[in-house]
């Protein structure tokens, strides 16, 4: 093969592996129509939870796919230095939950808290020194069934393990009133409004344009696949392939990032479906355990691919909901 043919073949291979994402980056058109939903039909109720003690298994080891063993902080607790907007990757932790993790000890109460909570829900501390402080739901985590809450900086020093909180949960039962085949999940109306105000909307053909920080292929998604519903839990991004991490800028993932998962349908359970697109938010940190990684709570899905995600580094809950 001649030198020109060799270099041409090499350039083509590089473009296939590294330039594919650039080809699909959309530019939202002008005059997008806001996403509308059944706002006046949504039921607003109260649920409670309390700050959870950190969880550690016995023995406290995390074993990586290559056999490396480490003991690391994990889920639960008040996490002072990793919060919404901070890195979900650059940490010595495993499945770390940002900000404040709350739960209930009774299974039925725990299920109500996790299933009914929506990202953006209002939270109020109702016991302890921080009583009266207000926060915002920023995600929920499967398996451990915790809900994560963000507060202003000055609140954290007054919080104590066991402090109780009451949430005004609204968003469950949300349905789109325009667009095509859109499933809306785990979102407070305030989050939909914030996305509409910051670049989300429908074009004349009914395609929903959504600002995201990352576009992630379904082929690297792990734990959470196959669940029968997305009203609780999350879906993990595997980061064990260094070339994939580089191609998709996964080392830049932050808590609160709005991300797109391509060829994935989160309308009900989480499945692989070619051309489907699902939107979610990063809710817990990196993991060393096989099949796990930063977790994503599902927000919007289109099984037929009527979502066009476009890259916007500001598409993070910290900015959208004016947190911290």
Commentary on this structure:
This protein has 5 helices and 18 strands. The protein has 324 residues and is α+β, with helices and mostly antiparallel strands. The protein has 2 domains: 26-39 and 172-320, tm1086 (SG structure) fold; 43-169, Thrombin, subunit H (Beta Barrel). The strands form 4 sheets. It has a 6-stranded antiparallel beta barrel with strand order 1-5-8-7-6-9. The chain starts with a helix and ends with a helix. Residues 1-23 have low confidence and may be disordered.
Topology of helices and strands:
Elements: H1 3-24, E1 45-51, E2 61-63, E3 69-71, E4 78-79, E5 99-103, H2 107-116, E6 122-125, E7 134-141, E8 146-151, E9 164-169, E10 183-184, H3 189-197, E11 201-202, E12 208-212, E13 214-217, E14 235-236, H4 242-247, E15 258-265, E16 271-284, E17 295-302, E18 307-311, H5 317-320
Parallel strand pairs: 12-18, 13-15
Antiparallel strand pairs: 1-5, 1-9, 2-3, 4-5, 5-8, 6-7, 6-9, 7-8, 10-17, 11-12, 14-17, 15-16, 16-17
């Amino acid at each position: 093969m001649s030198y020109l043919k060799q270099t041409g073949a090499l350039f083509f291979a590089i473009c296939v592996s590294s330039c594919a994402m650039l080809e699909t980056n959309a530019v939202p058109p002008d005059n997008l129509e806001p996403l509308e939903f059944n706002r006046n039909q949504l039921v607003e109720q109260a649920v409670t939870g309390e700050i959870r003690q950190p969880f550690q298994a016995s023995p406290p080891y995390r074993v990586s796919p290559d056999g490396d063993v480490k003991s690391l902080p994990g889920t639960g607790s008040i996490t002072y230095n990793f919060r919404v907007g901070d890195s979900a990757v650059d940490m010595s932790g495993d499945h770390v939950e940002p900000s404040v993790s709350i739960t209930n000890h009774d299974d039925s109460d725990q299920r109500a808290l996790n299933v009914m909570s929506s990202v953006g829900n209002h939270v109020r501390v109702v016991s302890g020194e921080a009583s009266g402080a207000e926060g915002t739901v920023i995600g929920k985590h499967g398996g451990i069934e915790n809900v994560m809450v963000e507060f202003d900086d000055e609140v954290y020093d007054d919080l104590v393990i066991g402090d109780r909180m009451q949430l005004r949960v609204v968003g469950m039962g949300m349905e789109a009133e325009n667009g095509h085949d859109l499933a809306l999940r785990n979102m407070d109306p305030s989050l939909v409004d914030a996305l509409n105000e910051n670049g989300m909307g429908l074009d004349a053909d009914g395609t929903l344009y959504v600002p995201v920080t990352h576009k992630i292929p379904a082929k690297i998604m792990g734990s959470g696949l196959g669940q029968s519903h997305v009203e609780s839990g999350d879906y993990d991004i595997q980061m064990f392939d260094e070339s994939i991490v580089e191609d998709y800028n996964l080392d830049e993932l932050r808590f609160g990032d709005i991300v797109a998962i391509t060829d994935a349908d989160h309308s009900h359970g989480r499945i692989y479906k070619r051309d489907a697109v699902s939107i979610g938010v990063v809710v817990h940190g990196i993991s060393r355990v096989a099949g796990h990684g930063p977790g994503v709570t599902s927000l919007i899905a289109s099984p037929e691919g009527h979502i066009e995600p476009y890259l916007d580094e500001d598409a993070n809950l910290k900015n959208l909901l004016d947190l911290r």
